[in-house]
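Hey, quick one: can you model this chain's 3D structure?
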Amino acid sequence: MKKIKKALISVFYKNQIDDLARYLAENDVEILSTGGTQEYLENLGMSVTPVESLTTYPSILGGRVKTLHPAVFGGILNRSDVASDQEELDQYNIPNIDLIIVDLYPFEETLSQTDDEQTIIEKIDIGGVSLIRAAAKNFKDKLIIADTDDCAKVADELRQNDCQTTMAFRKQMAARSFEVTESYDDLISGYFNRGRDKGLRYGENPHQNAVFRGDLNALFDQLNGKELSYNNLLDIDSAVNLIEDYMAYPGATFAILKHNNACGLACRDTALEAYKDALAGDPVSAFGGVLITDQNVDIELAEEMTSLFFEVVIAPSFDEDALEVLKSKKKRIILRIKPVEMPTKSVRSVLNGVLEQDRDLHLTESDKFNIVSTIPPNREQIDDLFFANILVKHTKSNAIVLAKGRQLLGSGTGQTSRVDALEQAIAKAKKFGFDLEGAAMASDAFFPFPDCVEIAHKAGIQCVIQPGGSIKDQLSVDYCNENGMAMVMTGHRHFKH
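Sure thing. Here's the predicted structure for all 497 residues.
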């Protein structure tokens, strides 16, 4: 437990500090304060020590500098269990401060009231944020209140504990304080990034407003076409992340995406061959899709592509005569992708907050495959399994991918049942004339039952890749062993929701 003996109070919003301040005064806690807060407390009849008596400096630069001084921060950042810290407090006559009550300038309110930049800039708090962070960092010894809405809760805590606080409570308040400063910094960065906001025609649907916050110019040169839409950007994001994982393949990769999933993909010696085989995977879904390749687009490829209606094409380079062909459609979006590193984190809004996670950058190399079947996959099958496993990672869950010879034959995407996903993939492959005999199947998650393996086997599929991890894994392995199929496990699930 830590006894509160000295408190620093410096707040913009003063209407919620009365009760706590009176309690502190009644318990002989010395109160330090600044400017308007000092005057407010004194008008309540309290004795207040001005911060200037510690710093020997008045508030300067129009109030920009009041508390930024070693006498204040030394009183907050000193550690009670470090002897040299306490010796320096004595040496420099720095008082120990136990409780810090500081809120932040009303930046959000100011944004809603004016567009005047200088007025807005002046509401960026410096001293307050610094005091909050210092006190929260030193929560082992200090109690921090960064939002006056919490004053009542702290007053109750102090009354129950004879003006003392526990380590757990101080840590709780420190966490709360970092949430306050994080939210505040987000508001400020949002203001400074306003110039980078790209207004979109609408969101997923015409009745939804939308903006893109980021720097597309750092990623692409847009060489032709209309403004990018919300849905374009979602597909482009999926396309760029997908093609990135196929960079290790020799030759050319070409992918066609629709609704964030690949409906066609192939790796071949040339981009033209890769395009033709990618399109063969599902020429119906390819209509209005997003096309991407990791190779230069030449005139021959451009002329072949123009027979298809598509919204976006992405490539690292385009020959001039190829561009002339592609630009024949004024609205067609042509993006030249730049060699930049993509973020390692992904963020999405959920409920009244956000979820942040590492991007799924894992790829299980073929030499790390765990062969669990009696019959091992041959060289061609290993290549098919590796190819399919990359693609299933970029397919909406529940997902199944069928592939052979570095070509997507069929996929089941976004299904509530893994069996449904497999049956969808098989139906897709058969619809476009593919023979599944000897093909490979990839699943983004484990098989809880052997039903998928059995269905795949009856369709002619001979090898399977999956993460494993089900308590009934052996049932699927046994089916493979009994029916001459090869199975490998990666140990890494690739859900994508």
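One thing worth noting: Residues 167-192 form the longest helix (26 residues).
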